[in-house]
Structures are given as structure tokens and as C-alpha cells.
Write a structure and sequence with these properties.
This protein has about 475 residues and is α/β, with parallel strands linked by helices. It has 15 helices and 11 strands. It has one domain. The strands form 2 sheets. Strands 1, 4, 5, 6, 7, 8, 9, 10 and 11 form a 9-stranded mixed β-sheet that branches. The protein has a two-stranded antiparallel ribbon with strand order 2-3.
Length: about 475
């Protein structure tokens, strides 16, 4: 049976993004050559908390400091019992290192009790908490807000539509012959969509491969040759080289599974013991990093993305109850990140990895009956061996008098007070200080600056937030 590119991609569960989208932005090889100093011997991992994580119950006011944060929190969240979502101070994971809203109220903060793993890493100085992250004219639609965060384009500027914010970076630095990134997913992650390079979408490395027919093994060589010829003779050489790169990857990446299991059985079992999708996803990334560390041929991916879903907690959210939805979600993430960090540290790669955690929005400040509705600004996390662990940004003003008509915190860029952190400043800091992209190039090609009233729009960037060297 003849094999088509569509059939190959469908059966393997892998997509080469460059092959799908074709040439476009950053197609000029001279641009890529000028930006050749890229990530180097480093890795970027993006973790998406899908559904809108309740930021106020993730990084929680412990006291008032010089303001009223804890009092405002207690007014917004009822005490536990009968659907109450308030976390008592005794429930919170309070790091031994300084963990305060240091820019305005100096209030002590604490992590949700499910985030023991994240608190342990914070105590090692490996976690940056960036407060009050959002964007102008915020959307309460999951779909719209996801697209905004994934593209880094809140106001929908035309030239940036259709590509992810990481994808635009990848396009500037890699070609169609490269497999520069891997999404632990069934399709190319929207943040990684690009028009210039290959991105694999793989759930499990051991299941990734060319769709040979087990009933007709004698046809394997012919099938491979047919696919190779199809792309070698493609009328568009860009698509052809991307297809061949995908084929070669399908023959290289599966072996990483056995290599990792054989060499790193202790950590393999540690992920398995957590028994959840986030841990398994991080394990797949660890396998690839281990492959790169050991110079396995044709293994070059340095950018990864995975997701953890279930954060749309309109009801039955829970507070400190270990069987509550929010507790279980955050525990899954915190524990998985901790095992992953320990794994890469044991490999000698902890200082080479940066993990960026985001969600499409937070939840409303006052709770509903026993959950939380769609909100605006919330915390982001950046984790890694070289991260300057501390609290950055200002905790949003959660006093009821300061909320908008939807009972959400307002996005404002006014100096001082409760100034919002535009999520593009976090992206820009990662692009500049971790991915080595020039400041001006970030502005001109990846993250468009807003126009409008500077009090309410992102008209002055800050790509030096301080959480990365």
C-alpha cells in the first residue's frame, strides 16, 4: 500500500510544524545566521495549567504586612466547610527563605498545601514566583485567552497571528532540517507553532515511529523508501527537508526510552510512583535531555512543552482537603516538577534547564458557592538551577473596593502601588536572558508593544525582571 505524508503523520501522532505551515516569517537565512547565538547548552520547558488556575489559592496571603492582603483574602474566601475555599495560615506551605510581597505590602505569603514539591525547590532558591501576571483588555473566554498567551499577542496584531511566541523565536534560529522542539501532546503546541522549523508532537517516545504494517513486514523497506522519495522530490524543498527530518526523528527518538530505563531506573520508578500524566510527561522530556547529554545521534531538541488540565474549578474546588480538586491538581504539578528537577540535577543538567509555568487566567477573587469563576491576573513560575529564586511583581489588589465589575483585579501599568506584571515581560525576560535573543529583535519580531494609554496598556517593556542571570 502506498503511504502518504498525511497517513504517516496521522499514524505516528507526530507533526513537523515547518512542513505544515511552510515558509513565512523569518524565512530569510541571513536573518537566522545573524541570530545564530541561540539557546546553546540549555533547555526550555513550558508547562501549561489548562483551565485557569486559581492564583489566589496558589500563592496565598499569610498576613497583612503593611496593607490588608490577608484581611481582604478572608473577606473574599469563606472558611473551610460548606464549600468554603479559605486556606488557614496553618494550612500553608511557608518557605524558610523570604517569601513576601516585597514590592508593596511586604505581606508574608504561603504556597497552597498541595505544593510541597514547589516549596522545597523554592527553599533551594530555584523558584521565581512572578505575581499579578496578565494583559490588557483581558478575556474571560478560555479559548480567546489561551490564544493570547500562546501567541504573546493580546491585541491581535496581524503579522503575529498564527504563530506561537516560542515558535517565532524558533523560526529566527532554526531551519527546516532541524527538529528544534518537542511537544508532549498529540499535535504541535500552539506556543511552538512556527513557519520555519520542525516541532515534534509525541505522547510517548516508545510508541513513536514510522507506521509500518506489522502484518506485512516485507514491505517495510519499500514504505520507508517511498516516503523518503516523496519528500526528496517535493516541489517545495522546504517541505521536503522537514519531512525527511521527521522521518529520521521517528527512527532516532524511540531508542531514548530503553536508554533511559536501563541507565536511570531509580528515577524512572520515581516518576512511575507518582502515577499521573504530568509526571509521565516530564519523564519523556527527561529521556530526551538524557539523550542530548549523552550525544545520541540526531537528538537535538532543546525546547519542550506539556500541559496539565482540569483547572476550570467552578464547583467542588476544595481548599486544604487532600481529596479536593485544586489540591490534587497542584500536588500533581508540584511533585512532578520536584522529581524532574532531581532527575536533571542528577544528570548534571539542572543549571541548563528553565521551566516556565503559566495558565490562561486566574479565578475570580470572591468565591462562588463552592468554587471560583473565571478571573484575570495570577502568578507565573520560573524554575531552574540558575533561576534567582524570589518573589517578583506586585500581588494584585484584592480589596473588594478595587475590583472591576466582574469582581476581578484590574490590569494597570501605573508606576507603584499594585502595578500589574504584563506576561510579555516574563516571556521577554526568558527570551533575552535564557534564549539569548537580542532585546530589539524580541520587540520587532516576537512581542509587539501596545499603543494607547500607558496606564492601561503595555507601552514600556521590561525584559530584565531579574529572575534569570
Amino acid at each position: 500500500m502506498a503511504i502518504t505524508r498525511r497517513h504517516f503523520l496521522k499514524c505516528t501522532g507526530v507533526t513537523a510544524a515547518g512542513a505544515v505551515l511552510g515558509p513565512g516569517l523569518f524565512g530569510n537565512p541571513f536573518v537566522r545566521q545573524a541570530l545564530a547565538d541561540t539557546i546553546g547548552d540549555r533547555y526550555l520547558v513550558v508547562l501549561f495549567l489548562d483551565g485557569g488556575n486559581d492564583g489566589l489559592n496558589t500563592v496565598v496571603p499569610y498576613d497583612n504586612g503593611s496593607g490588608s492582603l490577608r484581611s481582604d483574602y478572608q473577606a473574599a474566601r469563606r472558611s473551610s466547610g460548606a464549600g468554603g475555599l479559605r486556606l488557614a495560615t496553618s494550612d500553608l506551605e511557608v518557605p524558610s527563605l523570604a517569601f513576601k510581597d516585597r514590592f508593596n505590602t511586604n505581606a508574608q505569603l504561603g504556597f497552597h498545601p498541595g505544593l510541597v514539591g514547589l516549596r522545597q525547590l523554592y527553599d533551594l532558591g530555584k523558584v521565581a514566583v512572578i505575581q499579578g501576571c496578565g494583559y490588557p483588555e483581558y478575556s474571560l473566554s478560555h479559548e480567546e485567552s489561551r490564544v493570547i498567551w500562546q501567541t504573546g499577542n493580546p491585541l491581535g496584531y496581524g503579522p503575529y497571528a498564527g504563530n506561537g511566541w516560542v515558535g517565532r523565536y524558533l523560526a529566527a534560529n532554526y531551519t527546516s532540517t532541524d527538529i528544534s522542539a518537542v511537544g508532549i501532546s498529540d499535535s504541535v503546541p500552539p506556543e511552538f507553532r512556527t513557519s520555519a522549523t520542525g516541532v515534534l508532537a509525541v505522547r510517548r517516545l516508545r510508541e513513536f515511529g514510522f507506521p509500518y504494517d506489522n502484518d506485512y513486514g516485507d514491505d517495510d523497506a519499500a514504505r520507508r523508501q517511498a516516503f523518503f522519495n516523496l519528500y526528496t522530490n517535493a516541489s517545495n524543498p522546504y517541505i521536503g527537508s522537514a519531512g525527511i527530518a521527521t522521518l529520521e526523528s521517528s527512527e532516532s527518538y524511540p531508542a531514548l526510552h530503553d536508554l533511559y530505563q536501563n541507565d536511570r531506573a531509580t528515577f524512572d520508578e520515581a516518576y512511575e510512583a507518582l502515577d499521573n500524566g504530568t509526571a509521565r510527561g516530564f519523564r519523556e522530556i527527561a529521556k530526551i535531555i538524557y539523550g542530548v547529554t549523552n550525544s545520541v545521534p540526531n537528538i537535538n531538541a532543546r525546547h519542550f512543552r506539556l500541559a496539565n488540565g482540569g483547572y476550570d474549578t467552578h464547583s467542588d474546588q476544595g481548599a486544604a482537603d487532600t481529596e479536593g480538586q485544586h489540591y490534587e491538581l497542584l500536588q500533581e504539578v508540584g511533585d512532578a516538577i520536584k522529581v524532574f528537577y532531581d532527575d536533571i540535577a542528577d544528570m548534571g543538567a539542572a543549571n541548563k534547564v528553565c521551566i516556565l509555568v503559566w495558565s490562561e487566567f486566574a479565578r475570580r477573587i470572591p468565591q462562588n458557592d463552592n468554587g471560583t469563576d473565571h478571573g484575570s491576573q495570577g502568578p507565573m513560575f520560573v524554575i531552574g538551577g540558575l533561576v534567582n529564586g524570589e518573589v517578583y511583581g506586585r500581588h494584585p489588589n484584592i480589596n473588594m473596593s478595587a475590583l472591576d465589575d466582574d469582581e476581578n483585579t484590574e490590569y494597570r501599568q501605573d508606576a507603584g502601588g499594585f502595578r500589574s506584571t504584563d506576561f510579555r515581560d516574563v516571556y521577554g525576560t526568558v527570551l533575552k536572558h535564557w534564549l539569548n535573543m537580542p532585546h530589539g529583535t524580541i520587540l520587532s519580531n516576537v512581542l509587539p508593544i501596545d499603543s494607547g494609554d500607558p496606564a492601561f496598556y503595555w507601552t514600556a517593556e521590561d525584559f530584565d525582571l531579574g529572575f534569570l542571570p
